[in-house]
Amino acid sequence: MPFLGPTMEGRNQTFQHLKPICVSLSQDVLALNGPRGDVAKITRSVQELKTVVAKEVPNLDPKLGDYIFFPLSQLLKLSQKVPLRCLELCLECIAIVIEHAWGQHIQTQLAAQIVILCTLMAEKNPRRFAFGETSEELKTAAFLCLKNIFIAASASADCVTFFRSESNFPQLGQTISTTLDGIIDSEAVQTQVAGADSLKALVENVADREICASFLPGIVSKLTKILTPSTTMRRSHKVLTTCLDVLEGLLKSTVGTEEQVVSNGMTSDNQSGKSSVIDTKWRENAATQLKPALQSVLRLSEHSREDVRESLAGLCLTLLEHCRTTLANCSQMALETVFQLSAGSDSDNSHTTTIRLEMLLKADTPFANLLQSTINDWLQSLPTVMQGSNEHAKVRKIQQVSAAYGLIRDAGLETSMLDKRLASALRDSVVITLQAPSVKTEGKDFVSSVQSLDLSVLDGEKTGTEFSNALVEHRGQEEVFSCIEGFAKVVSSSGSSAAFAGDLARSLRYSNAEIQVANFWLLLTATQNALQCQDDISSLLDLGSDEGKAAYTDCLEELYSLALTILNSLSDEDSLPDERLQSLALRALALRAQIAGSDFRYELIDSLYPVLHTLATPSTELQRDSMTTLNIFTTACRYDSVRDLIVENVDYLTNAVSLKLNAFDLSPQVPMVMVMMVRLAGSSVIPYMEDVVESIFAVLEGWHGYSMLVEVLFRVLRVVAEEGARAPQLAAIENGEKSKVEAVIKEKWRPTNVTELASSLREKRAEESPERERREKAPQRPWKGSEEVGGEAKENDSEDELDAAGRPTDDADLPPPAPKTYGLLLKITELTQHFLPAASPSLRTSLLSLIRTSVPPISKHENSFLPLINTLWPEIVSRLDDSEPQVQASALDIISVLCEHAGDFMRTRIIELWPGLAEVYRRTARDIVSNSGSGKVDDPKKRSSGREIISVTAGRSCTSTFDRALRTMYDSPTHYIDTSMRLVWDAFVEALTTVIKHVPLSPELFDDALEMLAPVLDSRPDIRKALEDENADAVWLLLTKRGRLTSLECPEMPEALSSKGIVWPIVA
After folding, report:
1. Which residue ranges does the record annotate as region Disordered (predicted)?
2. Is the pTM of this model over 0.85?
């Protein structure tokens, strides 16, 4: 079996495979001495031999190795006559033989000869060879042979003794030098890797302490060239890791402690009684010379490869564990590097490094002193580093200090004095980072607060409970603040961190600007981490000590108090609180709620309004943080949703808003708190806002000259109206008069036929005949006095009482009282109309939109709705002549809504408004034609008759022109059409269609409306359907006159006639 060694049968088979090749190769080599030598054939034979040897590796033994080596040795003697490729294959084959055939049984003299040969071939300009310069492949093969020789020699005592002998020192030195030069000068990565592997095999398997000490200066000098980072030569990570391992082994064997060297068995020469190279003076010189070399090597700490950093960490740990006495001058930089390498890394090697350092810290007091001294130096240099522009250096320094502090904490050492210095250093670092040049955002103006009413942040943020970093202004600061935050959490988890928190708390109230922000953020971070960690531990263990928790609980109370002060501060434009402080204050309130749990409900009276006030700010970040705070309040106080949170506490929220409005606090956030309440809680809070609405109109009455303020307040009222219109209470209103109105609406005009006319005349004549007979003669005596008719009067009174008792009166038919939400919407709508003449077009549009929103829910209570129409109608109609198209379109929309919900009640008003509607039509049609480029429509003379109003399109050419203009407006996207013009036309079409559907019109007005809507009958089937429902004959006649019907189509037969089998006659 192969793993038990080669079998006899396997060796025989291998020999049979090797024999013809080796015999042929020997013969070909001998032929080289004569004129018939074939170099190409020899190269092919060596290639074939290598292939067979590599294939038969499991069956090789020392004897087969000797058999294979014989023709190769003859070939090497004639190396001047063969090409480089042949020598490369020869060395590769010998390397396989050394590793798998000879192994520990290699002969000492043979090994020495191979070392000499490979050393010569690995030189850049080898001597005693025909070729002037070696190749990379030949050097690679030579280094591979050297590695296998040194590994095989380590198992042979004779070989080890020979290589360590004094007589072999020159050759060993030559091999070391050639190998290092090969690594430095070679451009091929595989050559560098092979050279590094052979050097490592030499140092670990052959060289003892004296050899390493003798060649240490030269080896370290050349290793420094290899390991020093350079932009011109980027070494392979495999070369770097191997060379770092070689350097670590050299330092451990030469300048390490004596106990470690003895344990490694590297004092053979000393045991023989020879004088050692290593003495006190040698150690001093080594320490002096090694420091600059190690400084260059330790620059590899910034290498991108993890394996390189791990090897460098191993070198640093060797310096700290084994070389700290001799290389005391290198201990601090090794300590800095190892913390730099382990900080911010989660690899297994990083955890191993931390464990080794912790063990060293507990076992060695001087090392603990060194570590504390190093941390103090780092803290002193930290502000200087933070003022630089290298963000990576800042992060690395913070991670170094954090890792070192964590090590001291885990070792159980006292850190109270260090905690105070940490508080100052971290505060300065935060301040420096905040004051660093960055893109500054301009302060938000009043217009921004109006736009913030849209608050898209409310969508999708109703369940988030995680805050982002409040101090990060740009991406470059994110990693720095993340490291500082992590460091503060490490400090807060220490048992003696009360000194750290106390120093921050003492300076919190009396600091300002960035210093206060830094104190607040650090203290909040430490407090949150400390309290939450202690709660997690307390839920599992009863440690019996609450001193740390008590200290951080006091800090939390201080943060909570200051947070309320910040959020409740006056919102003057000259003294706006820092947005970062507001954001941190929100986090403090959220933390207080999380710690207090359901008991925080009693604190909502103080904390809920400031959060809603902040939610109304123009800053998107503050809005998001406020929403997160509300979510945390909801979870901590065990409400089902934010809606329930607002509704349960709506009483003092509305009181707070009313007090501020009554005090004429005109900051934009005050009224917008209402918006936040309504948006978050919906229509549930509308009934509680009557006093607030009254306060808003009081402010509007006193400050109506400030258009922007008026616009803000009315947009707030618009939001209230939008949510109130969705209130479920309004859906329950039953209008007893609705059926009567619908009955009136259905009694539309229709043509009277001859039969109906005759019947009507007969009925009228029949009614007049009895009336003429019942006419009384003139009285022949005076009227009776009141006394005489008293009895009759009483009789009539009793009849009236009987009627009252027997039949329900009008009072009994009154609908039930409307809910509060209805009254609030009615009041808002009634008072809004007084501000419609405002100078601001956007305000006028907003007011009309508010009325448009309120009309549908108000219409459900007819006794209030119909008087409201009388109130609003003059102002709405006057807006049709407004200079702004948006306002005209909004007015037309309201007219459409009023007609839809009031029906027949609007008949007289529409008749009176008809000339105005016709004027809107003429004006809009003229603008559309002019804008389309199709020509201009002559402005017709204004006439009072409804039939003459539409003369703007009476002519066939004018009609075609207007039709083409409309088609251009709708069907040609590339053709520019004024958007406002199209807006007015669409609103007019919808309004006129709604009038036809819901308001009874005379035939004349219907014909006018038909003429005005004729251009859209083909493109709008819904409008054509509405017109045909009123008078299908008129629509058919119009389309026929205009040539819109492709054939003689008849209108649809009425259902009453078609059911009797009556059909239109067929025209041939």
Report:
1. 757-818
2. no
